[in-house]
Design goal:
By secondary structure, the protein is α+β, with helices and mostly antiparallel strands. The chain has four helices and six strands, in the order βαββαβαββα. Helices cover 28% and strands 23% of the residues. The two termini are 26 Å apart.
């Protein structure tokens, strides 16, 4: 038997103000998108904003549905919109922010597993990393330099 050690390296910022101005702006766009989320069941609003290589910003927010599996997370709404509208454009960075109507979210909220897989597909497709910044409603911001840091054993087309 052989053991494999997998390490993830993330950067943690105490507040948004420690981030570069363009990432602060990206998080602001994610916060704006978050407020338009359709979350009548969970009351958990998530906003995402993507920065494309052209400088264009694409946003998304979670969209719930009474038939729970039919909803879609903010990250996938944004990345699928970018893929449909700007199919050949590289995604440089993504900002994600979450807020609950039931309690204050002060812990950085990462993308769920399904979103990590969807983001990994785009990272593999474009052959360059996507920086992911995520936070709750307030507090610390976590940065991952690549989706592969969040999902190190990605499943991609090489397995098919």
């Amino acid at each position: 038997m052989k053991k494999i050690k997998i390490e993830t390296h993330l950067e943690v910022f105490d507040s948004v103000s420690e981030l570069p101005k363009e990432i602060q702006d990206l998080l602001s766009k994610a916060q704006q998108a978050r407020e338009n989320a359709y979350a009548p069941y969970s009351h958990f609003r998530v906003g995402a904003a993507l920065q494309l290589a052209s400088g264009e910003i694409v946003t998304g927010n979670n969209q719930e549905n009474a038939a729970f599996p039919s909803g879609l997370c903010a990250e996938r709404v944004a990345v699928f919109h970018a893929g449909a509208t700007y199919p050949d454009m590289t995604i440089v960075a993504m900002a994600i922010t979450a807020r609950s109507l039931n309690q204050k979210v002060d812990t950085p909220t990462p993308p769920c597993g399904a979103c990590r897989q969807a983001l990994a597909e785009y990272e593999v497709k474009q052959k360059s990393p996507i920086s992911i910044y995520f936070m709750g409603e307030v507090g610390k911001v976590v940065k991952s330099n690549s989706v592969k840091e969040l999902l190190p054993l990605i499943f991609d087309s090489s397995y098919l």
